[in-house]
Amino acid sequence: MNDKTIIDVFVDGAKKGWNMGVNNIIPNVLMAYVCILILQVTGLLTLLGNLFTPVMAIFGLPGQSVMVLFSAMMSMGGAVGVAHGLYTNGILNGTHITILIPAIYLLGSKIQYFGRLLGTVGIPAKYYPGLLAISVINAAAAMLLMRLIA
Amino acid sequence: MNKTETQYQPQPNSSVPVSGYIVLVLAILIFSGIFASSKGWITVFDFDTLNGKFGTMKDAAKATFVGAGGIGAKDGFMFALSLVPGVMLALGIIEVVEHLGGLKAAQKLLSPILRPILGIPGITGVALISSLQSTDAGAGMTRALYENGQLTDKERLIFSAFQFTAGGTVTNYLSSGSALFAFLTVPTMWPLVVLFVMKIFGANIMRFYLYTVDRRNAANER
Prior knowledge:
The complex is a heterodimer of chains A (about 150) and B (about 220). With about 150 residues, chain A is mostly helical. Chain A has helices at about 5-40, 45-55, 65-75, 75-90, 95-105, 110-120, 130-150.
């Protein structure tokens, strides 16, 4: 281990970054962009936006931003893609992104983490709903907190 | 879906699930391009619509290779590709910090405060720091600590609550999050601070629950 130079170590880390990009971020973001497109073309995005307007207004966000939170549950990279897409479409602005960003990670990849984290650690399944609820509470609290400083 | 697959595989000739015929028809519609010139919602069944288009160089002075005005899979691909250098740089730096002992230093500073702020023993410091880098590393170490008897049932639950919300915090925030940093109205550090505060808060919700509502299970503690 110790005969590695700092440059070797950096390059090893950069390789991990490349693998994460190719195997995780690119496929997930591509999926997120196609999902937004489907929601846009079918008009579901506007519909969902209208439906969630009252809830999201609590956090100072437009209704469509709920899509960022839904996609975060599946993949953090995907949610970032959705947020970026909604920003480019002029639906979200900088303040909205600032409010949303901690929530993306607090809710992030829940579906995967049931197996990858809770399954690995061996947490009894009866605690899963509680742990999920904690994440949702955390995300809501973080959005209220960010609203104050954004 | 999985259920139909397992039923289907042993006798491939006899039972094709109905969903198989439905997706086949959809796939043929999507790839055939018959909706290419249609308008409205029906175009979601057109491959070219889903594939989208690349952005273009509208303003040469400001444009990056991602371009502006792209949509669909092509735009998603270019955007995701633009994230990769940041992810590689961030993970390269984290790797160097780890190699030079930066994470050990963090663990040393952290150990004495874990009991008061999270109600878990100082020995979890390494697992905690690792969990901030990689969810899977944190999960593996937590399991090992529990199996070695270094964590009680309650402590394991509190520690899992900490890891479950914003898993792989530092790596994930600095990698994919970097795509949104340019839009933030606050310094990049603030959302990260909020993440840590909320992780500690979440773990304490579990701690509170376990030591009040769930007290009946106290007898099971080892």
